[in-house]
Amino acid sequence: MLTALQETARSERRVSRLVLTCALLGFLALFVAAGVAAWSVLQAQDHARWVEHTYRVQQRISALRTAVERKEAARRGFLLDSTPSRRQLYDQAAGLLPRLVVEVERLTVDNPAQQTNSAELGRLIRQHDQMMQASLALALRDPLAARARFDEDGSRDVLAALRQVTAQMLFIEEQLLHRRVAEQRRSVTILFVALGVAAVLLVVVAVFSIVTLRNYTSGLIKARLRVEELNDELEDRVEERTRDLTRANEEIQRFAYIVSHDLRSPLVNVMGFTGELEAATKPLAALVDAAEAEAPAILSEEARLAAREDLPESIRFIRSSTQKMDRLINAILKLSREGKRVLAPETIDLGTLADGIVASLAHRLEAIGATIEVVRPMPSLVADRLAVEQMLSNLVENAVKYLKPGRPGRIILSAETHRGRIDVKVADNGRGIDPRDHDRIFDLFRRSGTQDQPGEGIGLAHVRALAYRMGGLVECQSALGEGATFTLSLPATPLSSQG
Predict the structure, then answer these.
(1) Do the Cβ atoms of 389 and 378 come closer than 8 Å?
(2) Which CATH architecture has domain 345-491?
(3) What is the per-residue pLDDT across 233-243, written as a single tens digit (0 to 9) for each?
(4) Which reaction does this enzyme catalyse, per its entry (predicted)?
(5) Closest among 327, 303, 306 to 315, alpha carbons compared
(6) Which of 11, 125, 402, 467 is within CB 3.0–4.6 Å of 472 for a Cys-Cys bond?
(7) C-alpha distance from residue 481 to each of 56, 251, 429, 430 (Å)
(8) Mind listing the pLDDT tens digit for each residue in 438-454?
Protein backbone atom coordinates (compact mmCIF):
# COMPACT_ATOMS: atom_id res chain seq x y z
CA MET A 1 0.00 0.00 0.00
CA LEU A 2 2.83 2.37 0.82
CA THR A 3 4.35 1.76 -2.61
CA ALA A 4 1.02 2.54 -4.31
CA LEU A 5 0.64 5.72 -2.29
CA GLN A 6 4.21 6.75 -3.07
CA GLU A 7 3.65 6.05 -6.76
CA THR A 8 0.44 8.09 -6.68
CA ALA A 9 2.24 10.94 -4.94
CA ARG A 10 5.07 10.84 -7.51
CA SER A 11 2.51 10.78 -10.32
CA GLU A 12 0.70 13.76 -8.84
CA ARG A 13 3.95 15.71 -8.54
CA ARG A 14 4.91 14.79 -12.10
CA VAL A 15 1.54 15.80 -13.52
CA SER A 16 1.57 19.00 -11.47
CA ARG A 17 4.95 19.90 -12.95
CA LEU A 18 3.74 19.10 -16.48
CA VAL A 19 0.53 21.11 -16.08
CA LEU A 20 2.48 23.98 -14.56
CA THR A 21 4.97 23.84 -17.45
CA CYS A 22 2.12 23.81 -19.97
CA ALA A 23 0.47 26.76 -18.26
CA LEU A 24 3.76 28.66 -18.24
CA LEU A 25 4.31 27.88 -21.92
CA GLY A 26 0.76 29.00 -22.70
CA PHE A 27 1.21 32.25 -20.82
CA LEU A 28 4.62 32.72 -22.45
CA ALA A 29 3.06 32.19 -25.89
CA LEU A 30 0.34 34.71 -25.11
CA PHE A 31 2.90 37.15 -23.75
CA VAL A 32 5.13 36.81 -26.82
CA ALA A 33 2.14 37.03 -29.15
CA ALA A 34 0.89 40.13 -27.36
CA GLY A 35 4.36 41.68 -27.50
CA VAL A 36 4.81 40.90 -31.18
CA ALA A 37 1.27 42.09 -31.92
CA ALA A 38 1.87 45.36 -30.09
CA TRP A 39 5.19 45.83 -31.88
CA SER A 40 3.62 44.99 -35.25
CA VAL A 41 0.72 47.38 -34.66
CA LEU A 42 3.11 50.16 -33.71
CA GLN A 43 5.23 49.41 -36.76
CA ALA A 44 2.15 49.30 -38.99
CA GLN A 45 0.97 52.62 -37.60
CA ASP A 46 4.39 54.12 -38.18
CA HIS A 47 4.56 52.77 -41.73
CA ALA A 48 0.99 53.96 -42.42
CA ARG A 49 1.96 57.43 -41.20
CA TRP A 50 4.95 57.49 -43.52
CA VAL A 51 2.89 56.17 -46.44
CA GLU A 52 0.37 58.93 -45.82
CA HIS A 53 3.23 61.39 -45.62
CA THR A 54 4.57 60.18 -48.96
CA TYR A 55 1.15 60.55 -50.57
CA ARG A 56 0.94 64.11 -49.22
CA VAL A 57 4.38 64.98 -50.61
CA GLN A 58 3.41 63.56 -53.99
CA GLN A 59 0.17 65.52 -53.93
CA ARG A 60 1.93 68.78 -53.09
CA ILE A 61 4.60 68.25 -55.78
CA SER A 62 1.90 67.46 -58.32
CA ALA A 63 -0.10 70.54 -57.23
CA LEU A 64 3.03 72.69 -57.55
CA ARG A 65 3.74 71.31 -61.01
CA THR A 66 0.10 71.87 -62.05
CA ALA A 67 0.26 75.47 -60.77
CA VAL A 68 3.43 76.09 -62.85
CA GLU A 69 1.73 74.63 -65.93
CA ARG A 70 -1.39 76.73 -65.33
CA LYS A 71 0.77 79.79 -64.84
CA GLU A 72 2.57 79.10 -68.13
CA ALA A 73 -0.72 78.47 -69.93
CA ALA A 74 -2.21 81.70 -68.52
CA ARG A 75 0.85 83.65 -69.73
CA ARG A 76 0.53 82.27 -73.23
CA GLY A 77 -3.16 83.10 -73.27
CA PHE A 78 -2.42 86.63 -72.09
CA LEU A 79 0.15 87.07 -74.87
CA LEU A 80 -2.51 86.13 -77.42
CA ASP A 81 -5.34 88.06 -75.77
CA SER A 82 -4.32 90.69 -73.24
CA THR A 83 -7.63 90.79 -71.42
CA PRO A 84 -8.03 91.23 -67.64
CA SER A 85 -9.58 87.77 -67.30
CA ARG A 86 -6.46 86.18 -68.76
CA ARG A 87 -4.30 88.15 -66.33
CA GLN A 88 -6.50 87.06 -63.43
CA LEU A 89 -5.93 83.39 -64.31
CA TYR A 90 -2.19 84.04 -64.29
CA ASP A 91 -2.27 85.79 -60.92
CA GLN A 92 -4.30 82.98 -59.36
CA ALA A 93 -1.78 80.34 -60.47
CA ALA A 94 1.18 82.51 -59.45
CA GLY A 95 -0.34 83.13 -55.99
CA LEU A 96 -0.43 79.39 -55.22
CA LEU A 97 3.24 78.73 -55.93
CA PRO A 98 4.95 80.34 -52.85
CA ARG A 99 2.74 78.42 -50.41
CA LEU A 100 3.22 75.15 -52.31
CA VAL A 101 7.00 75.62 -52.38
CA VAL A 102 7.06 76.18 -48.59
CA GLU A 103 4.89 73.09 -47.98
CA VAL A 104 7.10 70.91 -50.20
CA GLU A 105 10.22 72.13 -48.37
CA ARG A 106 8.57 71.42 -44.99
CA LEU A 107 7.34 67.97 -45.96
CA THR A 108 10.72 66.89 -47.34
CA VAL A 109 12.82 68.18 -44.46
CA ASP A 110 13.61 64.56 -43.44
CA ASN A 111 15.06 63.71 -46.90
CA PRO A 112 18.38 65.39 -47.87
CA ALA A 113 18.00 64.51 -51.54
CA GLN A 114 14.53 66.02 -51.68
CA GLN A 115 15.76 69.10 -49.81
CA THR A 116 18.32 69.65 -52.57
CA ASN A 117 15.61 69.21 -55.18
CA SER A 118 13.30 71.56 -53.28
CA ALA A 119 15.97 74.25 -53.18
CA GLU A 120 16.55 73.85 -56.94
CA LEU A 121 12.81 73.90 -57.53
CA GLY A 122 12.45 77.17 -55.61
CA ARG A 123 15.29 78.75 -57.57
CA LEU A 124 13.78 77.70 -60.92
CA ILE A 125 10.33 78.95 -59.92
CA ARG A 126 11.73 82.33 -58.96
CA GLN A 127 13.71 82.51 -62.20
CA HIS A 128 10.65 81.48 -64.20
CA ASP A 129 8.53 84.04 -62.36
CA GLN A 130 10.97 86.83 -63.28
CA MET A 131 10.77 85.80 -66.94
CA MET A 132 6.98 85.71 -66.72
CA GLN A 133 6.81 89.16 -65.19
CA ALA A 134 9.09 90.61 -67.88
CA SER A 135 7.08 88.94 -70.65
CA LEU A 136 3.78 90.23 -69.25
CA ALA A 137 5.13 93.76 -68.86
CA LEU A 138 6.32 93.74 -72.50
CA ALA A 139 2.95 92.37 -73.62
CA LEU A 140 1.20 95.35 -72.08
CA ARG A 141 3.47 97.77 -74.01
CA ASP A 142 3.94 95.86 -77.23
CA PRO A 143 2.06 92.63 -77.70
CA LEU A 144 3.69 91.87 -81.06
CA ALA A 145 7.20 92.24 -79.62
CA ALA A 146 6.26 90.08 -76.61
CA ARG A 147 5.00 87.31 -78.86
CA ALA A 148 8.13 87.60 -80.98
CA ARG A 149 10.36 87.15 -77.94
CA PHE A 150 8.38 84.15 -76.60
CA ASP A 151 10.68 81.66 -78.24
CA GLU A 152 13.87 83.52 -77.34
CA ASP A 153 13.54 84.46 -73.62
CA GLY A 154 14.60 80.99 -72.32
CA SER A 155 11.42 80.36 -70.36
CA ARG A 156 10.92 77.07 -72.16
CA ASP A 157 14.25 75.78 -70.87
CA VAL A 158 13.41 76.86 -67.30
CA LEU A 159 10.00 75.21 -67.60
CA ALA A 160 11.60 72.01 -68.88
CA ALA A 161 14.03 72.10 -65.93
CA LEU A 162 11.09 72.57 -63.55
CA ARG A 163 9.34 69.60 -65.08
CA GLN A 164 12.49 67.50 -64.76
CA VAL A 165 13.01 68.44 -61.09
CA THR A 166 9.39 67.73 -60.17
CA ALA A 167 9.55 64.43 -62.08
CA GLN A 168 12.71 63.53 -60.16
CA MET A 169 11.06 64.40 -56.85
CA LEU A 170 7.97 62.37 -57.75
CA PHE A 171 10.18 59.42 -58.69
CA ILE A 172 11.98 59.56 -55.34
CA GLU A 173 8.68 59.69 -53.49
CA GLU A 174 7.37 56.79 -55.55
CA GLN A 175 10.40 54.72 -54.54
CA LEU A 176 9.86 55.66 -50.90
CA LEU A 177 6.21 54.75 -51.25
CA HIS A 178 7.01 51.29 -52.61
CA ARG A 179 9.53 50.66 -49.82
CA ARG A 180 7.21 51.90 -47.05
CA VAL A 181 4.26 49.91 -48.35
CA ALA A 182 6.48 46.83 -48.44
CA GLU A 183 7.57 47.47 -44.83
CA GLN A 184 3.96 47.94 -43.82
CA ARG A 185 3.00 44.65 -45.42
CA ARG A 186 5.99 42.93 -43.78
CA SER A 187 4.86 44.19 -40.35
CA VAL A 188 1.37 42.86 -40.97
CA THR A 189 2.85 39.56 -42.15
CA ILE A 190 4.98 39.32 -38.99
CA LEU A 191 1.87 40.02 -36.91
CA PHE A 192 -0.10 37.23 -38.58
CA VAL A 193 2.85 34.83 -38.37
CA ALA A 194 3.31 35.59 -34.65
CA LEU A 195 -0.38 35.14 -33.99
CA GLY A 196 -0.37 31.92 -36.00
CA VAL A 197 2.64 30.53 -34.12
CA ALA A 198 1.08 31.52 -30.79
CA ALA A 199 -2.19 29.89 -31.80
CA VAL A 200 -0.42 26.70 -32.85
CA LEU A 201 1.60 26.68 -29.62
CA LEU A 202 -1.54 27.21 -27.56
CA VAL A 203 -3.28 24.38 -29.40
CA VAL A 204 -0.28 22.10 -28.83
CA VAL A 205 -0.13 23.04 -25.14
CA ALA A 206 -3.88 22.52 -24.78
CA VAL A 207 -3.78 19.13 -26.49
CA PHE A 208 -0.74 18.07 -24.45
CA SER A 209 -2.42 19.23 -21.23
CA ILE A 210 -5.63 17.39 -22.07
CA VAL A 211 -3.76 14.19 -22.93
CA THR A 212 -1.64 14.49 -19.77
CA LEU A 213 -4.65 15.12 -17.55
CA ARG A 214 -6.54 12.28 -19.21
CA ASN A 215 -3.65 9.86 -18.67
CA TYR A 216 -3.22 11.15 -15.12
CA THR A 217 -6.94 10.75 -14.40
CA SER A 218 -6.87 7.23 -15.77
CA GLY A 219 -3.79 6.40 -13.72
CA LEU A 220 -5.29 8.05 -10.66
CA ILE A 221 -8.46 5.98 -10.99
CA LYS A 222 -6.39 2.81 -11.25
CA ALA A 223 -4.25 3.88 -8.30
CA ARG A 224 -7.31 4.65 -6.21
CA LEU A 225 -8.82 1.28 -7.03
CA ARG A 226 -5.54 -0.33 -6.03
CA VAL A 227 -5.40 1.73 -2.84
CA GLU A 228 -8.97 0.69 -2.02
CA GLU A 229 -8.00 -2.93 -2.49
CA LEU A 230 -4.94 -2.44 -0.32
CA ASN A 231 -7.06 -0.63 2.26
CA ASP A 232 -9.45 -3.57 2.40
CA GLU A 233 -6.52 -5.94 2.78
CA LEU A 234 -4.92 -3.69 5.38
CA GLU A 235 -8.14 -3.42 7.37
CA ASP A 236 -8.39 -7.21 7.43
CA ARG A 237 -4.76 -7.51 8.47
CA VAL A 238 -5.13 -4.80 11.10
CA GLU A 239 -8.25 -6.43 12.47
CA GLU A 240 -6.48 -9.78 12.61
CA ARG A 241 -3.40 -8.21 14.17
CA THR A 242 -5.60 -6.36 16.67
CA ARG A 243 -7.23 -9.62 17.69
CA ASP A 244 -3.80 -11.20 18.11
CA LEU A 245 -2.58 -8.24 20.16
CA THR A 246 -5.74 -8.31 22.25
CA ARG A 247 -5.26 -11.97 22.98
CA ALA A 248 -1.58 -11.41 23.75
CA ASN A 249 -2.43 -8.48 26.00
CA GLU A 250 -5.04 -10.50 27.84
CA GLU A 251 -2.53 -13.32 28.23
CA ILE A 252 0.07 -10.90 29.58
CA GLN A 253 -2.49 -9.46 31.99
CA ARG A 254 -3.42 -12.92 33.20
CA PHE A 255 0.26 -13.80 33.51
CA ALA A 256 0.94 -10.60 35.47
CA TYR A 257 -2.00 -11.30 37.76
CA ILE A 258 -0.95 -14.90 38.33
CA VAL A 259 2.71 -13.99 38.89
CA SER A 260 1.87 -11.16 41.28
CA HIS A 261 -0.60 -13.38 43.11
CA ASP A 262 1.89 -16.24 43.36
CA LEU A 263 4.62 -13.85 44.50
CA ARG A 264 2.38 -12.40 47.17
CA SER A 265 1.96 -15.77 48.96
CA PRO A 266 5.65 -16.33 49.81
CA LEU A 267 5.99 -12.61 50.43
CA VAL A 268 3.23 -12.76 53.03
CA ASN A 269 5.01 -15.68 54.65
CA VAL A 270 8.31 -13.81 54.70
CA MET A 271 6.60 -10.77 56.18
CA GLY A 272 4.86 -12.94 58.81
CA PHE A 273 8.03 -14.77 59.83
CA THR A 274 9.86 -11.45 59.89
CA GLY A 275 7.29 -10.21 62.41
CA GLU A 276 7.72 -13.32 64.50
CA LEU A 277 11.48 -13.00 64.28
CA GLU A 278 11.25 -9.38 65.37
CA ALA A 279 9.03 -10.40 68.27
CA ALA A 280 11.52 -13.10 69.26
CA THR A 281 14.39 -10.64 69.43
CA LYS A 282 12.80 -8.85 72.39
CA PRO A 283 13.12 -11.73 74.93
CA LEU A 284 16.51 -12.56 73.45
CA ALA A 285 17.64 -9.00 74.04
CA ALA A 286 16.28 -9.19 77.60
CA LEU A 287 18.19 -12.43 78.18
CA VAL A 288 21.40 -10.81 76.90
CA ASP A 289 20.83 -7.86 79.23
CA ALA A 290 20.30 -10.21 82.21
CA ALA A 291 23.36 -12.27 81.35
CA GLU A 292 25.46 -9.16 81.01
CA ALA A 293 24.29 -7.97 84.45
CA GLU A 294 24.55 -11.27 86.37
CA ALA A 295 27.24 -13.28 84.61
CA PRO A 296 29.07 -11.11 82.16
CA ALA A 297 31.81 -13.71 81.79
CA ILE A 298 29.57 -16.10 79.91
CA LEU A 299 28.48 -13.43 77.33
CA SER A 300 30.79 -12.99 74.36
CA GLU A 301 31.12 -9.75 72.44
CA GLU A 302 29.88 -11.45 69.24
CA ALA A 303 26.70 -12.65 70.95
CA ARG A 304 26.05 -9.25 72.48
CA LEU A 305 26.52 -7.47 69.07
CA ALA A 306 24.40 -10.09 67.29
CA ALA A 307 21.49 -9.69 69.75
CA ARG A 308 21.60 -5.89 69.99
CA GLU A 309 22.75 -4.73 66.53
CA ASP A 310 23.14 -7.37 63.80
CA LEU A 311 19.81 -9.12 64.28
CA PRO A 312 17.64 -5.92 64.53
CA GLU A 313 19.45 -4.39 61.52
CA SER A 314 18.90 -7.54 59.43
CA ILE A 315 15.22 -7.59 60.38
CA ARG A 316 14.85 -3.91 59.35
CA PHE A 317 16.52 -4.65 56.01
CA ILE A 318 14.23 -7.65 55.39
CA ARG A 319 11.17 -5.58 56.31
CA SER A 320 12.24 -2.71 54.03
CA SER A 321 12.84 -5.11 51.14
CA THR A 322 9.53 -6.91 51.63
CA GLN A 323 7.68 -3.59 51.79
CA LYS A 324 9.28 -2.53 48.51
CA MET A 325 8.46 -5.89 46.99
CA ASP A 326 4.89 -5.46 48.17
CA ARG A 327 4.64 -2.06 46.50
CA LEU A 328 5.99 -3.47 43.22
CA ILE A 329 3.51 -6.34 43.29
CA ASN A 330 0.70 -3.86 43.98
CA ALA A 331 1.86 -1.80 41.00
CA ILE A 332 1.79 -4.85 38.75
CA LEU A 333 -1.68 -5.74 40.01
CA LYS A 334 -2.83 -2.17 39.41
CA LEU A 335 -1.57 -2.18 35.82
CA SER A 336 -3.17 -5.58 35.30
CA ARG A 337 -6.52 -4.38 36.62
CA GLU A 338 -6.33 -1.17 34.53
CA GLY A 339 -5.79 -3.27 31.41
CA LYS A 340 -8.99 -5.19 32.14
CA ARG A 341 -11.13 -2.14 32.87
CA VAL A 342 -13.63 -1.28 30.11
CA LEU A 343 -13.16 2.29 28.88
CA ALA A 344 -16.29 4.45 28.90
CA PRO A 345 -15.90 7.38 26.48
CA GLU A 346 -17.62 10.65 27.36
CA THR A 347 -17.18 14.31 26.49
CA ILE A 348 -14.47 15.83 28.67
CA ASP A 349 -13.80 19.54 29.18
CA LEU A 350 -10.02 19.56 29.53
CA GLY A 351 -10.08 23.00 31.17
CA THR A 352 -12.36 21.81 33.96
CA LEU A 353 -10.33 18.61 34.36
CA ALA A 354 -7.08 20.60 34.59
CA ASP A 355 -8.58 22.94 37.20
CA GLY A 356 -9.49 19.92 39.33
CA ILE A 357 -5.95 18.54 39.16
CA VAL A 358 -4.46 21.93 40.08
CA ALA A 359 -6.88 22.32 43.00
CA SER A 360 -5.87 18.89 44.38
CA LEU A 361 -2.21 20.06 44.46
CA ALA A 362 -2.89 23.53 45.89
CA HIS A 363 -1.42 22.89 49.38
CA ARG A 364 1.68 21.21 48.00
CA LEU A 365 2.23 24.00 45.45
CA GLU A 366 1.90 26.62 48.19
CA ALA A 367 4.40 24.76 50.37
CA ILE A 368 7.11 24.65 47.70
CA GLY A 369 6.31 28.07 46.19
CA ALA A 370 5.35 26.77 42.72
CA THR A 371 2.57 27.80 40.31
CA ILE A 372 0.59 25.99 37.61
CA GLU A 373 -0.83 27.96 34.67
CA VAL A 374 -3.68 26.50 32.63
CA VAL A 375 -3.60 28.07 29.15
CA ARG A 376 -7.09 28.71 27.80
CA PRO A 377 -9.09 28.04 25.78
CA MET A 378 -8.71 24.29 26.02
CA PRO A 379 -10.57 21.94 23.66
CA SER A 380 -12.91 19.13 24.61
CA LEU A 381 -12.43 15.49 23.68
CA VAL A 382 -14.39 12.27 23.87
CA ALA A 383 -12.51 9.69 25.96
CA ASP A 384 -12.55 7.77 29.23
CA ARG A 385 -12.55 10.41 31.95
CA LEU A 386 -10.77 8.31 34.60
CA ALA A 387 -7.98 7.34 32.19
CA VAL A 388 -7.40 10.93 31.03
CA GLU A 389 -7.43 12.19 34.59
CA GLN A 390 -4.92 9.53 35.67
CA MET A 391 -2.58 10.37 32.81
CA LEU A 392 -2.68 14.15 33.36
CA SER A 393 -2.39 13.76 37.14
CA ASN A 394 0.72 11.60 36.74
CA LEU A 395 2.33 14.09 34.36
CA VAL A 396 1.51 17.14 36.52
CA GLU A 397 2.58 15.42 39.76
CA ASN A 398 5.87 14.37 38.16
CA ALA A 399 6.46 17.98 37.08
CA VAL A 400 5.83 19.16 40.65
CA LYS A 401 7.98 16.39 42.12
CA TYR A 402 11.04 17.13 39.99
CA LEU A 403 11.19 20.94 40.14
CA LYS A 404 14.68 22.32 40.56
CA PRO A 405 15.57 23.49 44.09
CA GLY A 406 16.33 27.19 44.36
CA ARG A 407 14.29 28.07 41.26
CA PRO A 408 10.64 29.23 41.55
CA GLY A 409 8.65 26.40 40.03
CA ARG A 410 6.43 27.18 37.06
CA ILE A 411 4.32 24.57 35.24
CA ILE A 412 2.26 25.32 32.13
CA LEU A 413 -0.62 23.08 31.10
CA SER A 414 -1.91 23.66 27.53
CA ALA A 415 -3.77 21.79 24.78
CA GLU A 416 -4.44 22.29 21.06
CA THR A 417 -6.22 20.45 18.26
CA HIS A 418 -4.18 19.25 15.31
CA ARG A 419 -5.48 17.05 12.46
CA GLY A 420 -8.18 15.31 14.45
CA ARG A 421 -5.98 14.84 17.53
CA ILE A 422 -5.62 16.77 20.75
CA ASP A 423 -2.10 17.39 22.03
CA VAL A 424 -1.94 18.11 25.76
CA LYS A 425 1.39 19.55 26.93
CA VAL A 426 2.75 19.72 30.47
CA ALA A 427 5.84 21.97 30.51
CA ASP A 428 7.95 22.77 33.55
CA ASN A 429 11.18 24.61 34.42
CA GLY A 430 12.49 21.84 36.62
CA ARG A 431 15.71 19.86 36.70
CA GLY A 432 15.22 18.34 33.24
CA ILE A 433 15.90 14.86 31.89
CA ASP A 434 18.98 13.55 30.12
CA PRO A 435 18.14 13.07 26.40
CA ARG A 436 19.47 9.50 26.67
CA ASP A 437 16.66 8.70 29.12
CA HIS A 438 13.75 10.18 27.12
CA ASP A 439 12.55 6.74 26.02
CA ARG A 440 13.45 4.51 28.95
CA ILE A 441 11.66 6.67 31.58
CA PHE A 442 8.42 5.21 30.16
CA ASP A 443 9.56 1.66 30.96
CA LEU A 444 8.24 -0.04 34.09
CA PHE A 445 10.36 0.56 37.22
CA ARG A 446 12.82 2.83 35.30
CA ARG A 447 13.70 6.29 36.60
CA SER A 448 16.18 8.97 35.55
CA GLY A 449 18.52 11.31 37.39
CA THR A 450 19.09 11.60 41.13
CA GLN A 451 16.74 9.30 43.08
CA ASP A 452 15.90 11.75 45.87
CA GLN A 453 12.11 11.55 45.49
CA PRO A 454 9.79 8.72 46.55
CA GLY A 455 8.41 6.49 43.82
CA GLU A 456 8.73 3.10 42.16
CA GLY A 457 8.97 4.15 38.50
CA ILE A 458 5.49 3.08 37.43
CA GLY A 459 3.74 6.44 36.82
CA LEU A 460 5.03 7.14 33.31
CA ALA A 461 4.72 3.47 32.35
CA HIS A 462 1.08 3.66 33.42
CA VAL A 463 0.60 6.83 31.34
CA ARG A 464 2.07 5.22 28.24
CA ALA A 465 0.03 2.03 28.66
CA LEU A 466 -3.21 4.03 28.96
CA ALA A 467 -2.27 6.27 26.03
CA TYR A 468 -1.54 3.28 23.78
CA ARG A 469 -4.80 1.67 24.77
CA MET A 470 -6.71 4.85 23.81
CA GLY A 471 -4.95 5.14 20.45
CA GLY A 472 -2.58 7.85 21.64
CA LEU A 473 1.03 8.32 22.54
CA VAL A 474 3.19 10.25 24.97
CA GLU A 475 6.65 11.69 24.41
CA CYS A 476 9.20 13.83 26.21
CA GLN A 477 11.34 16.78 25.17
CA SER A 478 13.91 17.92 27.70
CA ALA A 479 17.50 18.82 28.48
CA LEU A 480 19.30 18.72 31.79
CA GLY A 481 18.73 21.88 33.82
CA GLU A 482 16.24 23.32 31.30
CA GLY A 483 12.96 21.74 32.35
CA ALA A 484 10.87 19.18 30.50
CA THR A 485 7.80 19.12 28.25
CA PHE A 486 5.61 16.02 28.13
CA THR A 487 3.16 15.83 25.20
CA LEU A 488 0.14 13.54 25.46
CA SER A 489 -1.47 13.08 22.03
CA LEU A 490 -4.96 11.57 21.99
CA PRO A 491 -7.60 11.18 19.25
CA ALA A 492 -10.39 13.76 19.57
CA THR A 493 -12.92 10.95 19.28
CA PRO A 494 -12.45 7.40 20.59
CA LEU A 495 -11.13 4.67 18.29
CA SER A 496 -13.34 1.68 17.58
CA SER A 497 -10.69 -0.59 19.07
CA GLN A 498 -10.84 1.02 22.48
CA GLY A 499 -12.35 -0.98 25.27
Answers:
(1) no
(2) 2-Layer Sandwich (3.30)
(3) 777 776 776 56
(4) ATP + protein L-histidine = ADP + protein N-phospho-L-histidine
(5) 306
(6) 467
(7) 95, 41, 8, 7
(8) 888 887 666 665 666 66
